[in-house]
Every structure is written in C-alpha cells, then in structure tokens.
Amino acid sequence: MENSVYQINKGINRAIEFKGLKAQYIWYLGGGIVVLMIIYAIMYFIGVNTYISILVILVVGAFLLMKIYAMSSKYGEFGLTKAIASKSLPKVVKTNSRAIFIELGKEK
C-alpha cells in the first residue's frame, strides 16, 4: 500500500510537478488557498451571510485556480521569473562618455 494517494512526478534534475502544476506554481496555489481561508474567516467574523461568503470564496478560488494553471502552462518552470526580470531591464542606456568602453578595450 502506498503512503500517499497523490502522485508527485519528479525525475532526476527536474522540478516537481503536481496535477499539471510545475515548480513554484504549487506554492502560489497553496498561498492563495491560505489567503482565501483567511478572507473567509474575516467575512465570517464580520457577520457576512455564510452562503454569500462561500459563494465569494468559490468564485475567487476558481479564478485563482484558472490563472495559476494558465501561468503554469504559459510560462513553465522558469518563464515567469524570466518575464518579470525582462520587465525590469532598461529600454535604453544613455551615456555622455565613451570612456567606459575605451577602458573595456584596453583590458583585453
């Protein structure tokens, strides 16, 4: 008998994949579920109707699930990190002097 009902596919030097989610997206989904539970608890303590609270959490949870699966399939294991990094690069580097390039040429 197996120890776990869920199967986690992981080969040698490969990222963890769970039900189609790759690498860090598993953590994103887990964090999102924890945030949804906290939001539900806050709504419960405020006194919002239980059925409305459940409906809101289910709708937001379904949206969260769809977005995370879409990001996982679109970007893959490292693509999201690369996309965020590429947005932080400057479009143009301006300089008023060629001195830095001249110094680079002298080192070689």
What does it look like?
- This protein has helices at residues 25-46, 50-75, 79-87, 99-107; strands at residues 17-18, 21-22.
- The chain is mainly α and 108 residues long.
- A two-stranded antiparallel ribbon has the order 1-2.
- Helix 1 (25-46) packs antiparallel against helix 2 (50-75).
- The mean pLDDT is 81.
Main sheet summary: 2 strands, antiparallel
Low-pLDDT residue spans: none
The value of Rg in angstroms is 23 Å
Estimate the helix proportion, in percent.
Answer: 55-70%
Beta-strand content bin: under 5%
Describe the strand arrangement of the main beta sheet, using strand numbers.
Answer: 1-2
Helix-strand category = mainly alpha
Instruction: Report the strand count.
Output: 2
Distance between the termini: 64 Å
| Residue-averaged pLDDT | 81
Count helical runs: 4
Written as H for each helix and E for each strand, in order along the chain, the element string is EEHHHH
Shape call: elongated
Describe the structure concisely for a colleague:
With 108 residues, this protein is mostly helical. It contains 4 helices and 2 strands, in the order E-E-H-H-H-H.
Task: List its salient traits.
single chain, 108 residues, mainly alpha, two-stranded antiparallel ribbon, 61% helix, elongated
